[in-house]
Design brief:
Layout: H1 3-15, H2 18-24, H3 29-43, E1 48-49, E2 56-57, H4 59-87, E3 91-98, H5 104-116, E4 120-127, H6 129-137, E5 143-147, E6 155-170, E7 183-185, E8 193-197, H7 201-210, E9 216-221, H8 224-232, E10 237-241, E11 252-258, E12 263-271, H9 278-288
Parallel strand pairs: 3-4, 3-5, 7-11, 8-9, 8-10
Antiparallel strand pairs: 1-2, 5-12, 6-10, 6-11, 6-12
């Protein structure tokens, strides 16, 4: 059994049938079917159950699939490490990022890194936190910059910054005005209309309820920019992480909410037990030493 046979077997399993696997591998179906049969004969075991449109693994087939994934990952990591060794610290660093961190990444994360490694180039892929994590799991990006809360299973994570939530209101709105100050208490949101990004609904509502605050969700939406737009229109108080409001226009007022539980973390994440390029490893090393 060689590494190519193992990769082909894994592809068959993950695609669900030989036809789709052959298409992904850019080969015809009969040779791939013959390869699978030859692999079973070589190992002296039955790897898949025949007669089903979708591949069904035997117990030993499932074992080979799981162990084979580890072997292929080690093989590919070794090849990548050899390439890194030949090229030095240069190449392309692929980063997935939530759009609300678009100012933080170049200003605070990449600028000091680029000074040390001027030959590095960057590809940035933007999406929400769940989309970025999916990019990491699929191998589209090396690392991701995301916001809590998220499911960190199979991910390594380093906190970059913890920041408070802020209340955003229209400057000319009489019904939501909090006066001349920079911070407000949670109690000042009592009986107010709020608009929030759906990702923060559980966090915000639990904190409000635990403190007996009866704010009403006027608009629940799928983007912090929508939250801000509704607040700018004077329809409700927008509640968003502080750094999101860096580029807001002058017709809004911003108030930091004084509540320890109402905070969010900006984190850098990457896949556990998976190869990272030398460029990505050096960025993570800088982060761990707080050199950013």
């Amino acid at each position: 059994m060689d590494i190519k046979q193992l990769i082909n077997f894994i592809t068959i399993v993950e695609e669900g049938n030989i036809t789709k696997a052959a298409q992904k591998l850019h080969m015809s179906q009969p040779p791939l079917s013959n390869q699978l049969k030859a692999l079973e004969e070589e190992l002296g075991v039955k790897l898949v159950e025949r007669g089903s449109r979708k591949i069904k693994l035997t117990d030993v087939g499932n074992l080979l699939y799981k162990r084979g994934k580890d072997i292929v990952n080690v093989f590919e990591s070794t090849l990548n490490e050899v390439e890194d060794f030949k090229s030095g610290i240069e190449g392309i660093l692929k980063i997935g990022a939530v759009s609300t961190c678009n100012q933080f990444i170049p200003d605070e994360l990449i600028s000091p890194y680029a000074e040390q490694y001027p030959k590095m180039r960057f590809e940035l892929y933007e999406g929400n936190t769940y989309e970025v994590i999916d990019m990491i799991e699929r191998g589209m990006v090396d690392i991701g910059v995301v916001r809590t809360p998220f499911n960190g299973q199979n991910l390594c994570c380093m906190n970059l910054r913890t920041e408070p939530m802020v209340a955003v209101i229209n400057k000319n709105s009489d019904k939501f005005g909090f006066g001349l100050k920079q911070k407000i208490s949670l109690q000042e949101l009592d009986n107010k209309q709020i608009t929030i990004y759906r990702r923060y609904e559980k966090l915000i509502m639990e904190v409000l309820q635990n403190n007996n605050i009866k704010s009403n969700i006027y608009c629940l939406n799928d983007d912090s920019r929508t939250t801000i737009a509704w607040a700018q229109a004077g329809l409700a108080i927008g509640i968003v992480p502080k750094s999101i409001i860096n580029n807001l226009n002058s017709n809004v007022e911003i108030y930091e909410i004084e509540e320890d539980e109402l905070k969010t973390d900006i984190c850098v994440v990457w896949m556990e037990n998976k190869y990272l390029s030398k460029g990505a490893r050096h960025l993570l090393d800088m982060i761990s030493r707080k050199q950013f």
